[in-house]
Amino acid sequence: MPGYLTTHVLDTARGVPAAGLAIVLYRIEGGARRELARMVTNADGRTDAPILPESAFEIGQYELEFHAGAYLDAAGVPPEAPRFLDVVPLRFGMSEPAHYHVPLLLSPFGYSTYRGS
After folding, report:
1. What pTM did the predictor assign?
2. How do residues 43-58 score in pLDDT, each as one tens digit?
3. d(CA 27, CA 56)
């Protein structure tokens, strides 16, 4: 099975998918980040296509950057100055050609993630 990467963002404070949240994917090589993709979540809190498709998959280290602050601003969550969570970076490795699913459970003051299915 060829590898690929998907994500899903849920707004746990409001109990809804995080629609309209910008995500940037980077590949980490020698300590440097190389941007691979920019996407925005749809009404279900997912990207319309894999954020890293099979055709671009490589084993290695990656980083997903979730632009939580802009999403929370657009969702009408009252801001503090500065906002506690703004950009949430998740750095992880993909060690085999498989489906990697990296979801984000988000609230204004915390987040969690895991390797999903």
Report:
1. 0.96
2. 999 999 999 999 999 9
3. 11
Burial class (CB in 10 A: 0-12, 13-18, 19+), 7: buried
Residues whose CB is less than 8 angstroms from the CB of residue 27 and which lie 6 or more positions away in sequence, other chains included: 33, 34, 36, 58, 60, 61, 62
pLDDT level of residue 2 (50, 70, 90 thresholds): confident
SS3 per residue for 67-94? EHHHHHHHCCCCCCCCCCCCEEEEEEEE
Rounded CA separation 26/81 (Å): 28
Q: For residue 1, name the pLDDT band (cuts at 50, 70, 90).
A: low
